[in-house]
Write a structure and sequence with these properties.
47% helix, binds ligand ME8, Isoleucyl-tRNA Synthetase, Domain 1, alpha/beta, Rossmann fold, single chain, 19 helices, 18 strands, six-stranded parallel sheet
Length: 518
């Protein structure tokens, strides 16, 4: 195998009960940006997304739509694929849990757990929330005035009583705690890690891992009356997609354990308690990290179908531009915190940071080059301290940004880039190349060269977040497709003085409110 470093990043697999919305797009976007970043940084990347198609919730949605569950999942799963294409996501694989490869992997995991003595047959009697596909203890529930019981997530629970296989989760508490202690970055952000640790310290109950009252799921090997609990099925997707149970396959050897499972905070417990316990019991190494991000609201309100305020990412992108939306989502909120979507906040970032700060910088510089340097990359002379300071700031960005990205701190990565964008704008104002044109044309060329070089750095580093727009900006700088990886950042002479440049065109339009006439 080559010694190229690898990076395996996964999204949750989304339930096919509903149309995809901004929340799903957000999680996958974060993974897409990491995948693109790592590829540009020389890694061999595997980026997985997909759909979670079994279980009671999906079965009920199919029934409500009057469709056979397989036909229903085929249809809704395609909506998630279409969204991924529309959002320009660069996933390498799209997994569906109804695929044969996945059924095979689930059954193999089950057998491993059974062989390890971690499964026993009993009866389950307890509370279940179909919306969360989760079991809850009586002590976790609250009661409404009309006597309904509600889980902490807000989902209504129902009483379930049925024969069930159990996983001996209670035996894994100490091993899980030892794993968290030994791997302080296994759960990020730290607040989530603390939350999980106190949950585990409170003691774990054995977990019901099969159902018998419906049959839309993977059959338990050797006992057809049972189907596997949908979360055991769903979590297994992360190893199915790298070839499990064929642990000798190239894919598996190269990419497992995954570097990162990106999830929303709602599904933290499944990924940081159940999943590593299943894996350890099956003799499989746990993933290296689970990052649980926050929750989006819309103009201050919870996003929900019943409130009618679901944000469709396609509508947003059609209104503001795809890369603008990608930028906004990752810049607006410290990654990990909850965030609020508002039209005003979107427009402020789009007009302020994209159109004014970055767009104007590139447009000013490229049009001065077009007008005053014959449309060719300018030729630099000796560099002043001011020139060197800007080039150093641009040159130092990669290691800074890399550090932020390695902790999934997209907002601080972008802040660091914008510090240099603002420094470049300050430099333009100080150096006033438009004045130098007559006074000292050679110096003007140096200043414009320094700026072009700074913009090259900025555009290369912004590619993961805004791939389409940055590709246009790099075209206008005459940077070839093969010179856009991070290794080319440090190459002196990446811009060739005298090379012809295409006609510049603005890439960041301002958002102008339409006159309503009201
Ligand atoms: O939980 N803000 O699928 P799901 C931010 N099938 N992120 C949001 C969001 C919001 N308002 N709404 C949804 C499942 N998300 C399981 C996962 S994985 C083995 C199985 C995102 O369709 C966020 O990532 O309910 C959340 O964790 C995920 O969608 C839940 O998607």
């Amino acid at each position: 195998m080559s010694d190229q470093p690898t990076y395996y990043v996964t999204t949750p697999i989304y339930y096919v009960n509903d149309a995809p919305h901004i929340g799903h797009a957000y999680t996958t976007l974060a993974c897409d940006v990491l995948a693109r970043f790592k590829r540009l940084d020389g890694y061999d990347v595997r980026f997985l997304t997909g759909t979670d198609e079994h279980g009671q919730k999906v079965e009920k949605s199919a029934q409500a739509a009057g469709m056979d569950p397989q036909a229903f999942t085929d249809k809704v799963s395609q909506n998630f694929r279409d969204l991924a294409d529309f959002m320009n996501f660069s996933h390498d694989d799209f997994i569906r849990t109804t695929e044969d490869r996945h059924v095979k992997a689930c059954q193999a995991v089950w057998k491993k757990l059974e062989e390890a003595g971690d499964i026993y047959l009993d009866n389950y009697g307890g509370w279940y929330a179909v919306r969360d596909e989760a079991f809850y203890g009586e002590d976790e529930l609250t009661k409404t005035r009309d006597g309904k019981r509600i889980a902490p997530s807000g989902a209504e629970v129902e009483w379930v009583e049925e024969p069930s296989y159990f996983f001996k989760l209670s035996a894994w508490g100490d091993k899980l705690l030892a794993h968290y202690e030994k791997n302080p970055d296994f759960i990020l952000p730290d607040s989530r890690r603390n939350e999980v640790m106190s949950f585990v310290k409170g003691g774990l109950n054995d977990l019901s891992i099969s159902r018998t009252t419906f049959n839309w799921g993977v059959k338990v090997p050797g006992d057809d009356a049972h189907i596997m609990y949908v979360w055991l099925d769903a979590l297994t997707n992360y190893i199915t997609a790298v070839g499990y149970p064929d642990t000798d396959s190239d894919l598996y050897k190269k990419y497992w354990p995954a570097d990162l499972h990106m999830v929303g905070k709602d599904i933290l417990r499944f990924h940081t308690v159940y999943w590593p316990a299943f894996l350890m019991a099956a003799g499989i190494e746990p993933p290296k990290r689970v990052f649980a991000h926050g929750w989006w609201t819309n103009e201050g309100q919870k996003i929900s179908k019943s409130l009618g305020n679901v944000i469709d990412p396609v509508d947003l992108a059609n209104k503001y531009g795809l890369d603008q939306v990608r930028y906004f989502l990752l810049r607006e909120v410290p990654f990990g915190n909850d965030g609020d979507f508002s039209h005003q906040a979107m427009v402020n970032r789009m007009n302020g940071e994209l159109a004014n700060d970055f767009g104007n910088l590139a447009q000013r510089v490229l049009s001065m080059i077009a007008k005053n340097c014959n449309g060719q990359v300018p030729t630099p002379g000796d560099l002043s301290d001011d020139d060197k300071a800007l080039l150093d700031a641009a040159g130092g960005l990669l290691s800074d940004v890399r550090g932020h990205m390695d902790r999934q701190a997209f907002h601080t990565a972008l802040e660091a880039i914008w510090t240099v964008i603002r420094a470049a704008n300050g430099y333009v104002d100080r150096q006033a190349p438009w004045k130098l044109r007559k006074e000292d044309p050679a110096r003007m060329e140096t200043v414009l060269y320094v700026l072009a070089e700074a913009i090259r750095h900025l555009a290369i580093l912004c590619q993961p977040v805004m791939p389409e727009t940055m590709s246009k900006m790099l075209d206008q700088l005459g940077v070839g497709e093969d010179a856009r990886g991070f290794e080319s950042l440090g190459e002196a002479g990446a811009l060739t003085p005298g090379a012809d440049l295409p006609k510049p065109e603005g890439v960041f339009p301002r958002f102008v409110e339409e006159e309503t006439g009201a």
